[in-house]
Amino acid sequence: MLTYGVNVGLPIGNGGFFNFTGEYRDRDFTNRQGYDLRPNYIRPSSTTFDSREASFNRLDFRYGDAKTQDFNFLINMGQPLGSADFYAFFTYGHRDGLSAANFRQQSAATNRDFSAITPGTTPTNANFVGLTPDGYLPKIQSSIDDLSATSGIRADVAGFKGDFSLGFGRNELSYRTENSVNVSFDPGQCRPVAPVRRRAGGSADLRLRR
């Protein structure tokens, strides 16, 4: 894992301050899988194996932590305003992740499920086994953004300690499927082969706090 960080603090006016912190982190994936000893290819007969079994890479799965890349920033500041104090802070974080799903064997039934094709489409090497003759390992690519900002004023009001603030926060997650054939899309003139990557979903949340 590689991590870089920076922190800068500066005075502002009479008694105020400004502080900035930034961090970059790059973490590679981990893999604790053992050899996959299952037959990977369709057997020519009940008594023989495909000759490719002898040279097939048996480390085809991936179990462990995802590969991630992070950027994080924080700004914190304050400034006296007569008998009151103004303050504000802002945070932002972004993460890109890449994890692996289960390995799809060449012999898997789903790799030959022709019923998933668009009606009227003939199974070809553009949308089935021909694209992945040895099977394939699908990947899940995620992108996460977290943002928040708050500002306020602290002051004594009629003998009470007052704190008036407004805060905003937003979180967004989106993810894509990579290296996974989507046979439900018909290969055509503008798409010579079935797509191997696509947006798979996401969510977002927005909040305002007073």
Put the structure in a nutshell.
This is TonB-dependent receptor-like beta-barrel domain-containing protein. Helices cover 0% and strands 50% of the residues.
Name a few traits of the molecule.
mainly beta
Secondary-structure blueprint of this entry?
Blueprint: E1 2-12, E2 16-27, E3 67-81, E4 84-100, E5 139-157, E6 160-178, E7 198-209
Antiparallel strand pairs: 1-2, 2-3, 3-4, 4-5, 5-6, 6-7
State the assembly state of the protein chains.
single chain
Estimated share of beta-strand residues? over 45%
The span between the termini is: 39 Å
Biggest beta sheet attributes: 7 strands, antiparallel
Q: What's the total helix number? A: 0
Low-confidence stretches: none
**Please, how many domains?**
1
Sequence of strands across the biggest β-sheet: 1-2-3-4-5-6-7
Q: Round the mean pLDDT to the nearest integer and report it.
A: 84
Organism: Diploscapter pachys
Protein name: TonB-dependent receptor-like beta-barrel domain-containing protein
Describe it for me?
With 210 residues, the chain is mainly beta. 0% of the residues lie in helices and 50% in strands. It contains no helices and 7 strands. It has strands at residues 2-12, 16-27, 67-81, 84-100, 139-157, 160-178, 198-209. A 7-stranded antiparallel beta sheet has the order 1-2-3-4-5-6-7, with no helix packed on it. Strand 5 and strand 6 (160-178) form a beta hairpin. The protein is elongated, with a radius of gyration of 27 Å. The model has no long low-confidence stretch (mean pLDDT 84). This is TonB-dependent receptor-like beta-barrel domain-containing protein. It comes from Diploscapter pachys.
